[in-house]
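Subject: mismatched residue count in predicted assembly?

I count 852 residues in my input, but I want to confirm that the predicted structure covers every chain. Input:
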Amino acid sequence: MDRIFLKNITLDGRQVDIFISDGIFTSITPHSCETPLAAEGSEIVDCSGKTVMPGFVNMHTHAAMTLMRGIGEDMCLSDWLDHIWAIEAHLDEPFIYWGTKVAALEMIKTGTTAFNDMYWFSPIARKAAEEVGLRNMVSFTFLDNFDPSAAEHQKESCIAMHETVPSWGPRSSFAVSIHSVYTVSEPLILWVTEYARKHGLKIHVHIAETEKEVVDCRKAHGGLSPVEYLDSLGVLGPDVIAAHTLWLSDKDIEILGSRKVNCVHNINSNLKLASGNFFKADELAAAGANICLGTDGCASSNNLDMLEAMKTTAIVQKAMRHDPAALPLPDLLKMATANGAKALGANSGKIEEGYEADLQIIDTDSTFFLSPGPFLANFVYSAHSDCIVSLISGGRFVMRDRKVPAEREILEGGRAELELLKNIDK
Amino acid sequence: MDRIFLKNITLDGRQVDIFISDGIFTSITPHSCETPLAAEGSEIVDCSGKTVMPGFVNMHTHAAMTLMRGIGEDMCLSDWLDHIWAIEAHLDEPFIYWGTKVAALEMIKTGTTAFNDMYWFSPIARKAAEEVGLRNMVSFTFLDNFDPSAAEHQKESCIAMHETVPSWGPRSSFAVSIHSVYTVSEPLILWVTEYARKHGLKIHVHIAETEKEVVDCRKAHGGLSPVEYLDSLGVLGPDVIAAHTLWLSDKDIEILGSRKVNCVHNINSNLKLASGNFFKADELAAAGANICLGTDGCASSNNLDMLEAMKTTAIVQKAMRHDPAALPLPDLLKMATANGAKALGANSGKIEEGYEADLQIIDTDSTFFLSPGPFLANFVYSAHSDCIVSLISGGRFVMRDRKVPAEREILEGGRAELELLKNIDK
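Triage response: the counts match. Full output below for your records.
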């Protein structure tokens, strides 16, 4: 395992030295000109003029959809879905492998050290993420479209996949995904929930992404909203990661809060697909929910850049609440880091001794940081992710000075997959 | 004047050679392996794998406010204004010079070749912009706060400033700014309008930025909205550049359209200050207005990045209209380029023979462009401005491979000014 000594780096406005060993922040001390004995033999990195931040935790992705971004732009949803489904009908392991690698490369270059994925061929996605060094939670996705034979097949496949988990690395975990209340039958929702609870797996689910989902659910389930319906089935709890949670009643908010659900906002996707624009961040947090941030898949959002997602989230919250003081920067930062880590059950998301060493190193030598304002305002509101020059994930450099070792290979692998896609699209 | 031959560059999906001389696109021809006689002696630049786009035209800035960005974040407007005014009380020429230079550097690094500025000490701002090679329209700003003696003083100052214009370079122009209906008296609005029309100057004005502005205006002016009031004074016409135009009645839209006013949307500023969120882009364009894009000043927006402004504009339009097909990419691109050039009266904003050579060169070798979708979707929705590797403004390179010659000097000059600000803030 790497031993790294980050010398003279800025942390919350103070100059510190950070010693990382065994993947953990072993010591964080005020900067001194001398290197301590404990750090001898470690790689010493002079970080003068640089600032350290926790790595981002992207709490909702469909990673391999990087290879579908830009398909069907400026189209209505039904036309767009036709384009996506034409490709998804031909998904295979190489597509998932290279699509996830491209996603991981993009996440690394934009400061993300961990992500929570809902897609297909998850052991392959896990392998791609592990190879480049990102923490990942991947899932078996249930989507039976109310077909009992599909449900049976998926249960078997999930169990088989779960059996491979013991061989996975320490920064990869396995979860189950219930795609949504409009694509998964009630018996299957109940089975998945029981299976997850029995095995201690997180449950990842799309909830209340569109108004139509809520209207249709109330019709189908005796007036219950998606939140009420899932709660009536016993699904909701602190082990649930709920993507979107956009169209919520006051009662829904109360339920999500009291069940301590992890609610993931994906602003760029919501705006671009015209799903909705008002995530009730304050209300959910006040009720007891753990609010997190994600990007959604690249086919809808259209990138995996958490810094961009932070800015859009903040300014849209201010606009929707008619209050420029809404969603202050420290709260926003937690949504993008510590809250996500908490949802994943990871001892990460903070730059503190004893936490896993997941961090970004920021170069502030640009116009974007030339300002009398605080670092965090410049980072979120002014800068772009190219200010993130290096990334350490689980105590290892995965990017140094904007260079990712496997970048060229990943871009070539991704392009080769795109060539194959061209034939499908015809 | 530079003579440049851009060889094998992608333009609208085709490979072309572009010859630039005397600041103009002299020829654009299908790529050939041979260099034509006309281009002999010019600088030949191999652009294989790169894409050309028109430079952005930022139609609403307060450029020198770069030095105030990040002040008073997450505060309500009145507290924020206290912070801004404490600094603005001490504005001087060095502040404007270095603030505008920092702004110009940021605009260059984010693909902008022309900007329309409303701020103080305009000849100094013009000098700063000219030195780094950006087209600029700067203005004398009228803001008398209904004080007749201030109005008289400003008239004299404007005339004196206008007299210096003949010595300005060909890519700098002089305009007048009427700050707003709530800060400029009626007699002064009338005088400025007459002065502008007599001398062929554009009129830059904030209109209907906030709901309060509209409510107050209707109270003060017999029920007239800001648009109706300014129209009743004869202000509105195709020579008017109206920033914001957010809070509009149907009648306002009809007036702005029939007067062919240039309406500038500044989405990030509008959202962040919670001014409003629904720019009626389609309605204004259909009525006959020329819709453009801007960033506003850095103290509110908080950067000058037009590519970021394009993405936010597009996705917010889709969300507000509940239509993912709203504001298609080609229309959005025009807002950020050709429409702005038209408003400035510049023969620019398009990559066509005979137009001024204002262009960006885009490097697509990244995950953001690894997609089956069109270039424009990747550029706007996925990528960030660091994909813009080179910029030619008025036929001259102002950035090459992300390097701007004066960058180091500008950052140092800006930082020295910030040191002085610290004393003021206390």
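Residues 407-425 of chain B form the longest helix (19 residues). Marking this ticket as 'not a bug'.
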